[in-house]
Design a protein that fits this description.
- The protein has 238 residues and is α+β, with helices and mostly antiparallel strands.
- It has helices at residues 8-16, 24-32, 87-92, 112-121, 123-149, 152-163, 177-184, 188-200, 216-222, and strands at 34-39, 44-46, 55-59, 62-67, 73-79, 84-85, 98-101, 105-110, 165-167, 170-174, 204-207, 210-213.
- A four-stranded antiparallel sheet has the order 1-8-3-6.
- It is globular and about 55 Å long.
- The model has no long low-confidence stretch (mean pLDDT 87).
- Keywords: DNA-binding, Transcription, Transcription regulation.
C-alpha cells in the first residue's frame, strides 16, 4: 500500500492521535504497512501475552481487560478513535491484558516490526511513545484505584458513561448485567441492584441488552471521577 492507497479513515484517526504532529513520512510508513480490520461488538481481538494487536482505532470502542485464573475480569482502560492499542506489548513482546470490542470497531492493524524499526531511528517518535506510555501507566493505576476503593454504584455509573455510544435517539450502551459485572469486577446480582436504582430514579432506561442513558448529568453525579478527563459523548442530531 502506498501513500495514495492509505484509507481516509486511517488518516483521520491518525490526526486525532498523540502522534499527529510527527513527520508525515512516519505516518505514511506505518499506515502503508497496515491493514484495515473490522470487529463486531463482543469480539475478543487478542488474548494477551504473546497474542497482541498493535492497532490505531478508526471508530468504535475497545476495552483492555485483565482476567484472573477463576474468570473474573477488570477493565484497565478504553480505547476509542485516535487511540493506539498494545504499544507496551509491542515493546515487551507480550502483555497480560487482552482486548475486546465493546462496540463495532474499525482499526488499522499496524506492523510491530515497522513500528519498532522507526522508534530505533527516530528519536522524536521514541520520546513521544515514551511519554504516551507513562501517561497510560498513570491512567491504568487510576482505573485500578477506582476498582479498589470506589463503590459498585460509582464504578458502574462511570463505566456506563464511558461505554455509551451516541445515536440519533440518545446515548446507548449495548450490554447486559453479566457483561457489566465482568467489566467492573463485580457479580451479576450486585450490578442488577445498582442498575435498578439508576432505573428507578430516571438516570437510565433498560430494554433487554440495551441501556439508554436518560439523564447523563444525574448519572454523572453518581459516577466516580472521569479518569481521563474525557467529555461524555453527545447524542447525534437527527
Amino acid at each position: 500500500m502506498n501513500r495514495a492507497q492509505i484509507p481516509a479513515a486511517a488518516l483521520q484517526a491518525w490526526s486525532k492521535s498523540f502522534l499527529s504532529g510527527q513527520d508525515p513520512e512516519i505516518r505514511d510508513a506505518l499506515l502503508a504497512d497496515s491493514r484495515v480490520v473490522t470487529y463486531s461488538a463482543g469480539t475478543v481481538i487478542c488474548r494477551g501475552n504473546s497474542d497482541y494487536r498493535v492497532t490505531l482505532v478508526h471508530k468504535g470502542r475497545i476495552r483492555a481487560k485483565v482476567t484472573s485464573w477463576d474468570g473474573r475480569e477488570v477493565t484497565t482502560r478504553y480505547a476509542t478513535a485516535g487511540h493506539f492499542t498494545a504499544l507496551p506489548a509491542m515493546l515487551t513482546d507480550g502483555a497480560p491484558s487482552s482486548l475486546e470490542a465493546v462496540t463495532m470497531c474499525e482499526v488499522s492493524v499496524l506492523n510491530p516490526n515497522t513500528f519498532r524499526r522507526l522508534m530505533r531511528t527516530r528519536a522524536e517518535l521514541a520520546y513521544q511513545v515514551a511519554v504516551y506510555l507513562a501517561e497510560s501507566t498513570y491512567e491504568t493505576v487510576a482505573y485500578l484505584e477506582d476498582n479498589l476503593f470506589n463503590s459498585v454504584q460509582q464504578r458502574l455509573s462511570r463505566h456506563l458513561l464511558e461505554m455509551a455510544t451516541p445515536t440519533v435517539n440518545g446515548l446507548l450502551v449495548q450490554t447486559d448485567q453479566t457483561d457489566l459485572a465482568h467489566t467492573i469486577g463485580s457479580v451479576r446480582e450486585v450490578v442488577a441492584r445498582a442498575l435498578k436504582k439508576l432505573d428507578d430514579i430516571g438516570a437510565i432506561r433498560r430494554y433487554r441488552r440495551q441501556i439508554w442513558i436518560e439523564d447523563p448529568a444525574l448519572l454523572r453525579s453518581f459516577a466516580s471521577t472521569d479518569l481521563r478527563g474525557r467529555r461524555l459523548p453527545e447524542a447525534r442530531d437527527s
